[in-house]
Amino acid sequence: MSAPANTAYDQTHDFAAVNGIDLHYLLQGNPANPTLVLVNMASHNLTCWEIVLEPLLNHFQVLRFDLRGTGKSGWGAEDEFNFAQYADDLAALLAYLHISSAFVVGVAYGARSAAQFALRHPHELSGLGLFDVALTPPVNQGDQGALGAQAMQMLKAAGIEPPQRQKYWRFYENRDAALSCHSAHQREGDTNALLHQIAAPTLVACGRQDMNLAAAEEIAGLISGAQFQVMEMTGHGSIFYRPDLFAELVIGFKAVLGTSR
């Protein structure tokens, strides 16, 4: 999909050859700080994080990347579009960048990839953040729109202006690959039974106006020592409702990560 001129999507950053594809990524910030990895939600590319980036860069070295098939990243065979593969791609990217461990934070669809990373690559994980998450087979999301509108009304009544959503956050190079990337949930079973294996410090957060709220609370209960936060006046895709609160929670969790990079 072609983007209008002069958007953040027009900027091509770096590529890493990992697992048979070229993965598009952007690493920013002071390398002396802990590394924070942001994993995109469904149908988005790495530009969508720009609304939370400034405060995060005061505390972290931040790594953003396009999942295979999305944004400007390459793609492989159909059976490689799954959350385990996305997690392995991230592990290979960290190795390519000589980053020994990272605080991996995913939102919504990205939280499924982050959870798989925690299960498959625990030694590369300094902390885990799961926002707006459900890990069971897909549930009916039909009320997400109405709940999101409710959250927007609450924010307006409270005098809080959410960020304007940009079309280029969802741009990609190949439509079929992007669609395949975001059908991975159709090929994954219930991951909840494995969550007891996660030992890294974990933050689970979900909007009050999100159909995944009950699932997120259950997930927090299945991970030993996990912190659970409800984000008020927030729908699914929390950074688009309360970017300030998202950044506050992520930064606040830094204290429990230790000094490992």
Task: Describe what you observe in this structure.
The protein has 261 residues and is α/β, with parallel strands linked by helices. It has a single domain (8-255), classed as Alpha/Beta hydrolase fold, catalytic domain (Rossmann fold). The protein is built from seven helices and eight strands, in the order βββαβαβαβααβαβα. It has helices at 50-57, 83-96, 109-120, 144-157, 175-181, 213-222, 243-252; strands at 14-18, 21-28, 35-39, 61-65, 102-107, 125-131, 202-209, 227-235. Strands 1-2-4-3-5-6-7-8 form an eight-stranded mixed beta sheet, with helices on both faces. β5, α3 (109-120) and β6 form a beta-alpha-beta unit. α1 (50-57) runs parallel beside α7 (243-252) and α2 crosses α3 (109-120). The longest helix is centred in the middle third of the chain and has 14 residues, at 83-96. The chain is globular and about 45 Å long.
- Please count the beta strands (DSSP E, at least 2 residues each): 8
The profile of the biggest β sheet is: 8 strands, mixed
CATH topology: Rossmann fold
Tally of discrete structural domains = 1
| Strand content range | 15-25%
Brief rundown of the structure:
With 261 residues, the protein is α/β, with parallel strands linked by helices. 29% of the residues lie in helices and 20% in strands.
